[in-house]
TrEMBL record:
Organism lineage string: Bacteria, Bacillati, Bacillota, Clostridia, Lachnospirales
Species in which this protein is naturally found: Anaerocolumna sedimenticola
Highest taxon listed in the record's lineage: Bacteria
The name this protein goes by in its record: Ketoacyl-ACP synthase III
Domain Beta-ketoacyl-[acyl-carrier-protein] synthase III N-terminal: 113-187
Signal in keyword set: no
SUPFAM superfamilies: Thiolase-like
Amino acid sequence: MVKVKIRDLAVSHGKKVMDNKMYIEHFKKRGKDVEHFLKDIIGRDKRYLFDEDGQNTLTLSIEAVEELFHKTGLSGADMDMIILSSQLPEYIAPPTSIKIHSLIGGKKECICYDMNSNCCGMTLAFDWISKYMSVSPNINRTLLIGCDYINLIIDTEEENLYGHYGDAACAVILEKTEEERGVLDSMCIVKNEGVDVALIPGCGFSNMFRSKDREELLIKFTPPEENVPESAVETITTVLGRNELKPSDIRMFCFSQYALINIQKIREILNIDEEHSLYIGDIYGYTGTSSPFITLYEAIKRGQVNRDDYIVLWTIGCGSENIGLLFKY
């Protein structure tokens, strides 16, 4: 066990609540019926969206961090490391994590970096941060933030994507502990047969400033053929088996909220009930990198997770790469 615990979490999200009606009507005008897809396949009912111009991954991340500091009584000066996981940070120079450092009053002796592993990013970051902290005597507390603004790059004519996403951020404080809490194990599996399923930007970075067509900058999407539940089960059963645990030993499975149908199939294969695999995609929409952590946040808030419970985070990113992570909360 890597003895780095989650001290607390906080979530911020767009203030506009949008139900399915607008998307159903949008595609109906184009001769497409998406009601079954939205409701029964990806499991959407509502999603949180930005309600005004000027909102982005930086502003939303700061809202989540401020709420987290309010809950914990900590400040930017208490953080030894600040990590942002994002596919679309507001800036790449300077790293948006340094912009966050500036806005929250971070101290001089601090490590800041942005990382991107698509929807796997925040879970991978949790794993790597924990292990880095365990061998770094001067790094005792880390601020980890996950925030994506995927709606910015969605083609509104693509029924597989438009209406799928929500705008939200999650901030987490990780700190060293002597308690028996922290990451026990993790595993990543890469299946590169789907390496071109979703390309962002669609034209590639080298062509961004040559293109005169905004649509070339949007996600270039091909419906994936991968059996996602099968990939999830392979990763999760391997991690649990290595630690002599069964699915019934896990208090909460925090899955990617990308599609309800995937979660339903994973539940069926692993014999997991809804109480131990919370679904929130009908409230938040799909939020990308932060998705498993917002699920954990909601599970804690609802009293479904308590200290010393075993938790599994599982998610999948473009390419594809999926990660299963086992930890003790």
